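Field log, afternoon session.

UNIT: design team B
ACTIVITY: writing a sequence onto a fixed backbone
BACKBONE:
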């Protein structure tokens, strides 16, 4: 059973290719567009399909790393913009007391670097290899769990 749960890199790439053909709102479309702070966040398909607040909080470090990595150089990567991206993507309203300590911890780990601006701090990836490994590790874990769950309910 354990061997069945282990996923090789090729399986992950195939999975990602398959997901590209699924008709959902792609993360890039959500996280790379800037939503004004005054605009209300409309949850994407991820939120309506059941990604609850607890799951988002459990995976917040990886979610923030992913958002910073995808947005840097194209959209704001300050704490407020990242909170808004989480809200739009997952329909989860996180407090600054949840997001900022997580961002600070990622910076202390050397995964993110902080660039001080006039009235804000922008976060950028500091160690591309470690961030990629962290995201890939989370992806492997989630895919392994998905396979286990699919097997339990008679899925593929």
């Amino acid at each position: 059973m354990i061997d069945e749960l282990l996923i090789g890199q090729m399986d992950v790439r195939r999975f990602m290719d398959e997901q590209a053909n699924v008709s959902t709102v792609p993360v890039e479309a959500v996280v790379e567009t800037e939503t004004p702070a005054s605009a209300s966040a409309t949850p994407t398909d991820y939120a309506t399909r059941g990604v609850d607040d607890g799951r988002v909080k459990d995976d917040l470090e990886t979610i923030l790393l992913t958002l910073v990595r995808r947005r840097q150089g194209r959209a704001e990567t300050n704490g407020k913009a990242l909170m808004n991206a989480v809200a739009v993507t997952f329909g989860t309203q996180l407090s600054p007391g949840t997001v900022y300590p997580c961002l600070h911890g990622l910076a202390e780990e050397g995964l993110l670097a902080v660039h001080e601006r006039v009235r804000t701090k922008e976060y950028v990836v500091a160690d591309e290899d470690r961030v990629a490994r962290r995201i890939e590790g989370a992806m492997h874990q989630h895919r392994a769990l998905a396979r286990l769950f699919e097997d339990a309910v008679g899925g593929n």
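LOG NOTE: Residues 1-43 have pLDDT under 50 and may be disordered.
NEXT ACTIVITY: expression trials, pending approval
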